[in-house]
Amino acid sequence: MRLLRHVSFVDCPGHDILMATMLNGAAVDLIKETQAKEQYQQILNFVKGTVADGAPIIPISAQLKYNIDAVNEYIVKKIPIPVRDFTSSPRLIVIRSFDVNKPGAEVKDLKGGVAGGSILCGVLKLGDEIEVRPGIVSKDQEGRILCKPIFSRIVSLFTESNDLKFAVPGGLIGVGTKIDPTLCRADRLVGQVLGSLEINYFLLRRLLGVKSDDKKQTKVQKLAKNEVLMVNIGSTSTGGRVVSVKADMAKIQLTSPACTELGEKIALSRRIEKHWRLIGWGKIKRGVCLDM
């Protein structure tokens, strides 16, 4: 076999609800041929009339390694390569951050923090000056939230243990910096504009990953004023209170700072039976920055 493409699978909000089903299916996938044909037809019926209607459905067995080559072929031939933007200012969403220094390391040997994530646009190069926002978040004496951006420089770039001179959109990248490692340890930089967001939102017709004979229990209820949701913006996960709702527009007051831009897509989850359940998505129409 020869390498044709790298493909990255990115977690989405709500994936944890379906994780057990996915793992169970991957570990115990030995079934009778008749059952496989029935499930194939069930999937066809399920996606009919949706954006997935007409998409290829490939029966596989991970245990017996059946059709794994067919999956690879479809990924290469059927999934188009996204259009990449190399000319805009570089922007990377941080999904992990690390302190790579070992306990007891000498001061002269200390390395700056490492940020990991996917570049959305632009190109990052060794030596580039970078800015992390919102950066260090604190409160003043009156309780107002203050955000101080972090400025640093790229000292290393790597992916899959390969050192890079520059990095472009697509895949996961590790960015070595001169940032104080204590600010990066234990994912402290993950997902870092405080205030209210105005969004166009769309709700799912029913809850995913919930089995019930009562359709009312699985139907997604409309957003209610003052209810608290979990809002996922990029790699940021934060609480948000619904300030107002009108038709497909909603204003949400975030509980902690988040960096975003107009038009960015977000995910909305609601607390249902002790779990955060994905109920819909939205697109940011307007953001109001407070005390920045």
Automatic annotation (TrEMBL):
InterPro entries hit by this protein: EFTu-like_2, eIF2G, eIF2g_C, eIF2g_dom_2, P-loop_NTPase, Transl_B-barrel_sf, Transl_elong_EF1A/Init_IF2_C
Tell me the SUPFAM superfamilies matching this sequence.
EF-Tu/eEF-1alpha/eIF2-gamma C-terminal domain (SSF50465), P-loop containing nucleoside triphosphate hydrolases (SSF52540), Translation proteins (SSF50447)
Provide the Gene Ontology terms for cellular component: cytosol; eukaryotic translation initiation factor 2 complex
The record's Gene Ontology biological-process terms are: formation of translation preinitiation complex
What keywords are assigned to this protein? Answer: GTP-binding, Hydrolase, Initiation factor, Nucleotide-binding, Protein biosynthesis
Initiation factor eIF2 gamma C-terminal domain span: 196-284
Check the record and name the Pfam families matching this protein: eIF2_C (PF09173), GTP_EFTU_D2 (PF03144)
Q: Which CDD domains match?
A: eIF2_gamma_II, eIF2_gamma_III
A GO MF term:
translation initiation factor activity
> Where does the record place the Translation elongation factor EFTu-like domain?
112-194
Name of the protein in question: Initiation factor eIF2 gamma, C terminal-domain-containing protein
Q: Which organism is it from?
A: Catenaria anguillulae PL171
What does the organism's lineage look like at the top?
Eukaryota, Fungi, Fungi incertae sedis, Blastocladiomycota, Blastocladiomycetes
